[in-house]
Every structure is written in structure tokens, then in C-alpha cells.
Amino acid sequence: MTHDSSTAARPSGAGAPGPDDDRVRATWFTNLSIRTKVVVLLALVVIAVVGASASAVARMSQIAATTRSVQTISTEVVSRIAVVEREVVEAQLLATQAAATDDAAERRRLADLAAESDAVLEEAAASFEAGTEGIVVPGWDEFRSSWATWLDLRADRLPTGGGAVPAGAPTLSDPDAEAAVAAALAGLDQADTDSDAYLEGMAAASEATVQRATRSLLLVQGVGLAVVIVFGLLTSRTIRRQVAEVRRSVEAMAEGDLTVEPRVDSTDELGGMARSLASAQQSLRSTMAGVVGAAQQVASASAALTTSSERVAAGSDETSAQAGAVAAAAEQVSRNVQTVAAGAEQMGASIREIAQNASQAAKVAGQATDVAQATNDQVTRLGES
Predict the structure, then answer these.
(1) What b/e string do you get for 304-327 counting C-beta neighbours within 10 Å, with b at 16 or more?
(2) What is the pLDDT of residues 9-22, one digit of tens each?
(3) What 8-state DSSP symbol labels residue 173?
(4) Predicted structure pTM score
């Protein structure tokens, strides 16, 4: 990989798009870590599923309550109307039989049976009213009023305790009694019709609830799925663009261009990686600039060294010639030294001879000095005398 000084010295922004580029801008979403983005995506999926399930459970609970109510009315209430209607007919039949017989024991037996029938009827009526509490059943009110009128007529026209019916007394076959029974039965029929209408209404309401539950479930699922898809696409798009920026920078580095930095401003993992890559590029650019400068200095030094080498080569030739002259002079000096050595040897012999002569002269001089001293002493003595 080669880099010239101009490439290494370019600023970090060289070759990068301007301010209107498609830069991966930092937002609250892009700054989230990749792990957080995945967790949020999974949380949205869970919320969507839980929301849809909760809505479905609530609707299903409502449907179940409606179904139980319908079942209760069907099994407990409507069936009680049939029991009440049967006991009304039974009571009317027992009253007619009691009015027609002259046997006191038979009348007492019929009176007991009538009391049992009344108890069964009241129990069924109470069960019906408990099952329809809070429900308006107009026919039932009509039955209660008409049946109470017939019971009053029966109490007035049939002696209690099995007594005989007075001659000429009104019977339960007269128009008033017949009208009361007919009105009671008509009220029961109306109550049955009203109950059927109520059940049909509840069935329709239950069906409507099912439809609403289905629509709500589909709506919640649709909204949840849309949110998950949008969030997933946003996450995928953000990560893809960041990875593309980093790859663009790495590919440029592989081609020798260290000036293409990844345009990522987020603070997530990919943003951190992009900043580290940009820092590495800056360091490499600084290093390459230093290498280029050093190479230029080495080239200058190499040129100077080449010139010096040429000068040294020329000086070597001159030095070789001078060395020849020096060698000749040295040979002459050697011969002169030998001559001087021979003369010095002769001079040493002469100096030794001179030294011997000087020693002899010194002895002679000593003797002369002694003679002179003796002479001097003789002269002194002569002078004194």
C-alpha cells in the first residue's frame, strides 16, 4: 500500500460529502444500544400479544357471562313458567272437584292437594322472579295480579276445612272466576313470550359481543403488528445505514484512502465503532505523514551522501598519488636515516676517544694544578722571608 504526502496530509473531511449528505444523524432512537432496540422490539411484540389476549379474555368473559345468563333463564326461569302454568290448571281442577263433591272427607283431601299445589306454584314463581331479577317481564305482573284475584275468589267461594258449599253461593265457574283464570294464563303466556324475546335479545347481544371481540382482537393485533413492523423496519434501516457507512470507510481504507470517515453520529455500539475507526484513520494519517516526511529527509540525505561519495572517490585518487610520493620520500628518508645512523656510530666512537683524551687532560691538568699550588706555596714562603 502506498501513500503520497498529499494524500496523507489531506484533512479528515476531504473527499467526504458536504452538509447535505445522507449522514446517519443521531436521534433518541439511533442513540439506543442495539440490545435496547431488540429488547424494545420484543417488548412491543409482548405488549401486542398481551393486549390482544387481554382484550380477547375480557370479551370472552363477557360472552361467557351472557351465555350463563341465557342458560340460567332457559333452564331455571322458562321451565318455571311451565310449572306455574301446570299448577294453575291443577288448582283450578281441584277447586272444581271440591265444589262438585258432597263428601266432606273428599273435600278435605282436595283442599290439602290444593294447598300442596299452591306451595309448588309459589316456589316456582319465586324461582322465576329470582331468575328474572332486574328484568322487566310485563306478562308476569299481569299473571300475579289475576292469580291473586282468583285465589281470593276461591277462598270466598270454597269453605276451608272441607265444609259444604252453601246452596246458591257463587261458584268458581262464574264469569269473574273464569276471567281471572283466563287472565292469569294469558299473563303466563305473555311472560313466556317476554322471556323468549329477552333470550333472543341476549343471544343477539352475545353474538354482537362476539363480533365486537373479534373486531377488537383484529384491531389490537393489527395495531400491534403495525407498530412492531414500523419499529422493526426503523431498527433495521438504522443498523443497515450505520453498517453501510462503516463498510464504505473500511473499503476506502483497503484501497489506500484514509480520508473517508464513517458518517455516523449515534452513540450506540455501531456509532462507537465508527468513532474508533475514524480515530484509527486519523492516527494512520498522522503516521503516514511522518513516514513521508522521514522518507523525504532520507532522500535528501542520500543525495548528499552520493555527492560526498563522488568527492571522496576523487580525493582517493589524489591521495593514492600523494601516497606514492610519500613512499618514495620515506625510502629516501630511510636511506638518510641509515647514513645518519652510521655517522652517529662514528661520532660515538670519536666522542669516546675525546672523552678518553679529556680524562687524560684532566689528569694532566690536575697534576699541573698541584704543581702550580706547590709553586704558589713556595713563592709565598719566599715572600715572607
Answers:
(1) eeeeeeeeeeeeeeeeeeeeeeee
(2) 343 443 444 434 45
(3) T
(4) 0.42
